[in-house]
């Protein structure tokens, strides 16, 4: 049975999650990909105001596709998270609490996740069209010139996710490989 979570998330809620837990996330999340992360990092380094509050925020590494008639958004599939690794520790330090993407994260990001009591959720890329149906509302709030990579505020309902890296640094991908190798022996 998936764990139902509602934003804003708390560090206590995240501390109870374990790598491999299935989650249904509802509430406000923000979208941001490579170009937006670069701009956010530049604003942070200059001490300038961000287009949204990072405190307890959830960022989804996605570039939503245009909506079909009658829908709020098109496909809502994750992009490779590793591309955001250069920026992630700074965002976590400034209050980011959770990230959603696909693929592995580097060691510095895992250490920063542990230091900040955050988590990394995985979204399955193959169900991008299904994820699009979880969107209740979507509004572009920053970097409009980036088109699909602009930052959006999105309201989701019961978005299916898996805890990939929990707040203790346990990595579901690595645990899976270890189990597989153990079972092969």
Strand order of the largest sheet: 2-3-4-5-7
> Average pLDDT value?
91
Count of β-strands? 7
Oligomer: single chain
As residue ranges, the low-confidence spans are none
- Derived from helix and strand composition plus strand pairing, the structural class reads alpha/beta
Cα distance spanning the termini: 31 Å
| Cα-based radius of gyration, to the nearest Å | 16 Å
- Given the structure, what is the number of helices? 6
Taking the sheet with the most strands, its summary is:
5 strands, mixed, barrel
Query: Mind telling me the CATH class?
Result: Alpha Beta
How many distinct domains? 1
The arrangement of helices and strands along the chain is EHEHEHEHEHEEH
């Amino acid at each position: 049975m998936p764990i139902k979570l509602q934003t804003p998330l708390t560090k206590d809620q995240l501390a109870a999650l374990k790598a491999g837990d299935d989650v249904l996330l509802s509430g406000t999340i923000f979208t941001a990909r490579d170009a937006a992360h670069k701009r956010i990092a530049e604003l942070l380094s200059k001490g300038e105001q961000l287009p949204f509050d990072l405190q307890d925020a959830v960022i989804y590494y996605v570039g939503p596709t245009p909506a079909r008639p009658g829908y709020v958004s098109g496909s809502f599939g994750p992009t490779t998270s590793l591309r955001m690794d250069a920026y992630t520790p700074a965002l976590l330090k400034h209050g980011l609490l959770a990230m959603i993407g696909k693929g592995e994260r580097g060691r510095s990001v895992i250490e920063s996740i542990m230091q900040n009591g955050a988590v990394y959720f995985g979204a399955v890329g193959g169900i991008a069209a299904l994820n699009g149906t979880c969107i209740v509302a979507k509004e572009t709030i920053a970097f409009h010139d980036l088109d699909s990579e602009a930052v959006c505020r999105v309201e989701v309902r019961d978005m299916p996710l898996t805890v990939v890296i929990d707040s203790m640094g346990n990595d579901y991908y690595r645990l899976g490989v270890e189990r597989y190798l153990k079972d092969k022996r």
